[in-house]
Amino acid sequence: MAEPALSAKGLSKSYGAGAAAVPVLRGADLDVAAGEFVAVLGPSGSGKSTLLHLLGLMDRPDAGTLSLAGLSVEALDEDARARARGAKLGFVFQFDSLLPEFTVLENVLMPARIARAQGLSREPWAAAQARATSLLDSLGIAGLAGRLPSQTSGGERQRAALARALVNQPAVLLADEPTGNLDAENGRRVFSDLRRAARERGAAVVFVTHDEPAARAADRVLRMDAGVLRPA
User: Fold this and answer.
1) pLDDT value at position 199?
2) Residue 228 falls within a domain, yes or no?
3) Which of 99, 170, 182, 191 has the fewest CB within 10 Å, making it most exposed?
4) Interatomic CA distance for residues 81 and 78, integer angstroms
5) Residue 203: its pLDDT value, please?
6) Confidence tier at 149 by pLDDT (50, 70, 90)
């Protein structure tokens, strides 16, 4: 059986110290296979964002283990965690966060440019450009490559953000309410694009949302309730 692209065991996190400590995540277990799309449902304050921060190496758990594409990360120092984040993870958030002074294509290529600067990639630049262009084409926005973000719609910008998250071919894609700032039609399109990306590009996707109708289309749905992660 293939090793999961993402494997978390017993992740726990509290904020504060001593008697004032507030447990936010309580022993979360999560395995996600390459190409699998997993939705995590839960209301605001349930621990969803904390889980995503731990999976995305933006914070450290108080207890538990985490591996990404076979790399155990809990003992890594901050520099190594940053390299692992750049090499193995892609992120899509509720707001696209495209850089306004760069074109859509330049925004999509930004992670590839950073990876080259950090010595994480020796790929010819032309290959990265070709992959970015192909991603934009697959998402139906190739014609927007030369436009600034301000010259595109919200749905188009979010699809560009998805292309940016995929350009470095991450093993794991983490999505935090990526449809929450869109109308229903564009939300469905972005959700469909995320799911297709998982299938076609072999990325394990963890999609955090409070949108139950959207979550039903995932391969598997989990629910976060008061810091406890369980099947929905």
Assistant:
1) 84
2) no
3) 99
4) 5
5) 92
6) very high
Provide CB contacts within 8 A for 232, sequence distance 6+: 41, 215, 221, 222, 223
Encoded tokens for 202: 């072999």
Token pair, residue 183, equals 């109308």
Residue 44's domain comprises 6-68+76-208
Please report where in the chains the tokens 């390299």 appear, as a residue.
83
Give the number of other CB atoms < 10 A from CB of residue 115: 19
Give bridge partners of residue 13 from the DSSP assignment: 25
pLDDT band, very low/low/confident/very high, at 1 (cuts 50, 70, 90)? low
Q: Distance (Å, rounded) from C-alpha 175 to C-alpha 95?
A: 11
Q: Tell me: pLDDT of 166 over 90.
A: yes
Structurally, how many domains does the chain consist of?
1
Record the tokens describing residue 67, joined without a space. 């591996």
Give a yes or no: residue 93 inside a domain: yes
* CA 36 – CA 38 distance, rounded (Å): 6
Q: Do the bridges between strand 228-231 and strand 71-72 make them parallel or antiparallel, or are there none, so unpaired?
A: unpaired
d(C-alpha 182, C-alpha 155), whole Å: 7
pLDDT higher for 80 or 182? Answer: 80
Alpha helices (H) in 34-183, listed in sequence order: 48-55, 78-88, 104-117, 125-138, 154-166
Rounded Cα distance between 59 and 46, Å, is: 17
Residue 134 dihedral angles phi and psi, to the nearest 5°: -65, -40
What are the pLDDT digits (tens) for 188-205?
887 888 888 778 888 999
In angstroms, the CA 107 to CA 15 distance is 35
